[in-house]
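User: quick one, fold this
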Amino acid sequence: MQKAAADSSLFLFTLLAVGVGGSGLALVGIWVETRLEQNARRVFSGVLCSCLGVASAVLWGLHQPWAIVGPVLALGAATLAVCTVQTALARRWANRLYGPVSIWTLLLVVSPLFSLLYARHVNKADPRSVLLAAPDPTIRKEPTDPRAVTDQGREIELFHYGSVHSLERLETAVIELAGFSYEVIRIQGPSPDSNCHGWVFTGGLYCVASEQVDAILTDNGYRPVEQAEGGDLIIYSDDSGLPAHSGVVRFVTEDGRVLVESKWGPLGVFLHAPETQPFSRQFSFWRSPRAGHRLHVLPMASAVE
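Assistant:
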């Protein structure tokens, strides 16, 4: 709570120093440049620049955060620019384009604009906080849930996710933190009905546990292949070699680039390159002579005993 209060105070100081302080300083500077004599203008800008410079150095020496040092230093830099333009050499070359009044006017425009952009940036939700606040999805199993079987008759348990809140926000946070905002195409929104394996093996109707993927691959005649083709499976593995994620190869270009469709847990379904997902960098392609990837889903009464 104390940290949040401190962050709010720093945020308010930055807004006031740059937005209000910068605009006020600019108005005073414009008045000085248009009403006072040249020597008075030089004294004003020189004293102001020195004061702001000393204040910045003192704050830096006291190990104050950049949210405090930065605004003071920025205003000092603006007054330093005015002092520089007021010298004879600078006036000779740039006074018409970058005169003191022009600099003060620029500060008057930039200060409130910066404050607005800074406020928007600071108030933007931190994706890390969204991830930290999101509870792990629970598993919901009902006695009436059907069972699935492989081609060899092995029973595969199906389930759904329990209540999962704020899936849209969670999905946005995952994509933003991973840097995938412009690298994936979402083709379906979040849903707790299935996970990645359930999307592949049940058509998105149920979830399938990662521990059962190897059994499905074995029983349904899948074999690893080097070159992917449309319709193949892609299986991602964790560091121990166990399945961590799965998807379906949708497109393979002439130069060998692969586009995968996969569901990211309870989040959405995406088209992406094999490497563009948050689960694993280790993957392999699998192919089976069977038609499609779906398991045989049976009603509860017909489940294998």
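User: anything notable?
Assistant: DSSP finds nine helices and 13 strands in the chain.
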